Amino acid sequence: MHHRRRTQSWHTGALLLALLQGPSFARAGDWHRDRTLVCSDCHTMHNSRGGVPMRYDDLQAPAVLLLRAESATAVCLACHRGDRPSVRAPSVTAPSNGNPPGGGFPADLADLSHRAHALGTTPLLPTYGDADVVMSCVTCHDPHGNGAYRNLRPGPSGTARTTPAPVVNSIVAANGSNPELVYVRSNVRYVSGLSAWCIDCHVGIAAAHSVSADAPAHPWDVAIFGGPTTDWAAWSGSVPNRTAVENPAGSPAPDPGDRVFCLSCHKAHGSPNPAALVYADGATLSSTCQQCHNM
Questions:
Q1: What number of CA atoms fall less than 13 Å from residue 206's CA on the CB side?
Q2: Model confidence over 265-275: pLDDT tens digits?
Q3: Mean pLDDT across the stretch 240-248?
Q4: Phi/psi zone of residue 22: left (φ > 0), alpha (ψ -120 to 50 degrees), beta?
Q5: Taking a C-beta distance cutoff of 8 angstroms, is the pair 259, 245 a contact?
Q6: Residue 273, Cβ neighbours under 10 Å: how many?
Q7: Can you give the pTM of this predicted structure?
Q8: What does the DSSP 8-state code read for residue 270?
Q9: Is the preceding omega at residue 156 within 30 degrees of 0, hence cis?
Q10: How far is CA 26 from the centre of its chain?
């Protein structure tokens, strides 16, 4: 009996030591870090605090993976739906042509109007895709962090393709109190890999948009300046609501190395427009096209 008590005491002490020596807070990429996010913000051990359920929807039933809502997306939206100002998390539920960089989802997350990535439980075949994908926040983002920009997962399609997360420079470091600066497009510089990352799901778009004499289409990851309809004086001038560009040197726009890429024309989460397109003036697609095709 005495030996069993010592064994139990040793196990208890070892567990406490492991907890004390291990991370005392979650570290997830460029925002979910330090004490701005802790395990209990997303998970609950017993789903009760003072006899009150800890789920964000106030339901008493336990959720999968000890989550505090019915799904990973519901947990994310508990902070990112824009109705908890004290959290200071950016809202992703307002379709946008401008800030934040990713745009936003419509009120109906399962909306199949193609103005946004539809989030739900039904497997969907992406446009130009070759494999069904169940879209949720964690399809593209790693909730526990991976060191990549916005915790973007490599290979979001979930297939055997190995597509690394894109290289993006965040000019303003997140410190838990400055989302209004971190999520401003002018403070984000896309360097490389974003188009390839999108094509991990939309794999057939390369063939559908192949650039040839027989099937001309808009290219991506090519320099804006120097094309047949671009003018440096116009591109380097004062351009209101300048569309996103990719720059291999990480230089701020306007720069001779700026390239058009997926997010130059589309919003990652969604926009108010068909195909999640960006309308630079908020009303017309031509206003986006004419930022580059300005001669």
A1: 10
A2: 999 999 999 99
A3: 94
A4: beta
A5: yes
A6: 21
A7: 0.85
A8: B
A9: no
A10: 19
Angle ∠(27,186,281) on CA atoms, nearest 5 = 130
Q: Which residue has the tokens 């990713």?
A: 102
DSSP string, 75-135: HHHHHHTS--GGG-PPPSSS--SSSSTTB---SSTT--SSSBPPPSSS-BPPTT-SS-B--
Token pair listed for 225: 């300046």
How far is Cα 151 from Cα 168, in angstroms, rounded to an integer? 11
pLDDT tens for 113-150 read 889 999 988 899 998 999 999 999 999 999 888 888 99
pLDDT at 153 over 50: yes
What is the C-alpha to C-alpha distance for residues 69 and 46, in angstroms, rounded to an integer?
13
pLDDT-based confidence at residue 249 (cuts at 50, 70, 90): very high
Q: Are 270 and 97 in contact (CB under 8 A)?
A: no
Inter-CA distances, 146 with 161, 162, 164, 267, Å: 18, 16, 12, 23
pLDDT band per the 50, 70, 90 thresholds, residue 178: confident
Rounded CA-CA distance 273/265 in Å is 11
Give pLDDT, residue 162: 83
3-class SS of residue 290: helix
